[in-house]
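Support request, please re-run this one:
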Amino acid sequence: MTAIGSAPVRRDAAGKVTGTAPYAYEVSATAPAYCHPVQASVARGRITGFDTAAAESLDGVISVLTTEQAERLADTEDAELAVLQSDDVSFRGEIVGAVVAETSEIAREAAALVRVAYDQAPHDAELSAERDDLYRPEKVNPDFPADSAEGDVEAALAAADVTVEQTYTTAMYHNNPLEPHATTARWEDGSLTLWDSTQGVHPLRASVAKVFGLPHERVRVICPYVGGGFGSKGTAHAHVVLAALAARAVPGRPVKLALTRQQMFSLAGYRTPTIQRMRLGADHDGRLSAISLDVVEQTSRIKEFAEQTGVPARMMYAAPNRRTTHRLAALDVPVPSWMRAPGECPGMFGPEVAMDELAEALDMDPIELRIRNEPEVDPETGNPYSTRNLVACLRRGAELFGWAPRAAREEAGWLVGTGVAASTYPARRQAESTAMIRFERGRYFAEIGSADLGTGAWTVLAQIAADALGVPFDQVEARIGDTAYPIASVAGGSTGTSTWGSAIVEAARAFRDKFGDDPSDGDAAEGSVQPNADAERFAMHSFGAQFAEVRVHADTGEIRVPRLLGVFAVGRIINPRTAASQLIGGMTMGLSMALHENSVFDPRFGHVVNHDLAEYHIASNADVRDVQAHWIDEYDEHVNPMGSKGIGEIGIVGTAATIVNAVRHATGIRVRDLPVTPDKLLNHR
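Re-run finished. Output below.
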């Protein structure tokens, strides 16, 4: 029996549920000090002075850091990480100082006593598609062209039998993992050790080493456990640099810093709101002749991040005339960043709701409409797909969900409807990761500096290693989460298992070639990800179809989603237990996006006003009733040696559109601006 495909219990489960797994803030440290940031209370301006006397007089305060005396950093190219290097204020909530104290409570109290004087300047923090200063970025995340065009979209739309032209919006969203962003920093003999809640210990080390002008070997990052990240912990943020600066103030002592939930809304990234102008043209048979998507987003004035919202529309459906554009507004706001399924998550909302509107205009089943527009090859590149099983997902999902007959109905005052949408996400692996297979005391260890966000890496990497070595699963352990292990890519873009697993397979082959089946204690061999020639010859994507039943109360507008079902084509499943968890988690996050999540931004003051979990609503257990994740049998030999694809993000893609489409079916009301809330339904009555 092979380990891949079996469903062993997660190896990190016992430590997490018993509270013995050490997280970044909980690391055992001798005589730690604690740091609390001081944040700007204006959205733009210049600091003219500090009054730190009250803070410094508080018993237990060790040091107060400000821009006036903070250490000069070696590299300030990344403005987000140039902490305490300038008197300029670029957004409300920016770090302008910090307190280091003997306890976290004292540090927090003292930070509130620091008075900062400002020469306040007018700020601009309002996103609109009507702005006259929107600009085209050079690229969108990570390196796609901002615009694309093929054929003549305007002519095709003018000649189309049926057209849809609508604008859809998604809200500003903030990652709220259970574990907040946290860092413990310690300097010793000129070297820095960071225990950080991060999605990539090696990428974080590279960023921090650059900022402080240190060689990589003098920075160590340790992170065996992460309490969720969803993209927000995939890149270095300002608090990590602040923790390291604060640790300079107490030589030899570690300093702990954990962002409060409120601070995360300005210091840990977020998903930009989007405005999506979507146009479709089709003939009476439902075959698309034109697809056009124009996206407007925001970025920070100090650091550009352009989410690739329009990119999935370039490859999803066949149409001879296609166009996508991205335009940005540079505002006095915090820096946006990655959030689960960047690009695909917001970018599939407008197109998949528009497809539902087109199906309605054609009086056609929305599943049939999607099937009729299946491309034979990737419309963007012209390459064949390594595997594309969207149709199989749609048909299997319809069967499991009980799609037909599909008629809206009313039950005891509840309007009941169903909806469907498709989902996609790139299937890829990163170019750099190395693994070491080591044999010690009769056991094999797979060492790689990867991260487990709760996705199951501790378990699935050991499964991959066991099969690659040809030994039972219980003879293999993974060692991860430390830059002391070989370099690994960030856990992001649903590339983790694909990339790290590929490196482990190479290391296992090298180990067997070198030592055979009877190794000696201490034997070790290394292997790295190899270039994938198929990446240039094939279009590699995962696909899925999601179905929802929605109930809307006819009098109150209350919305419930009693059933949510997804069927996915995501390559070979390494571990069905962890795979189901990831897909269900993604769909639940999509449900939250559809019905609850909305960072309410007040442009007058430049900040999110509902910056805690009391007012930033997310899905709770009561919202998640019957959520099912299924998959079809698929093996994709072109993506990686395991035949697998990433599964961490595709579950969220398409979910919000599915629910919006079901709301339309139930009520006759089309909501085009997320989230769907009762007022939007009652106001249309």
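The first helix runs from residue 13 to 18. The longest strand covers residues 288-300.
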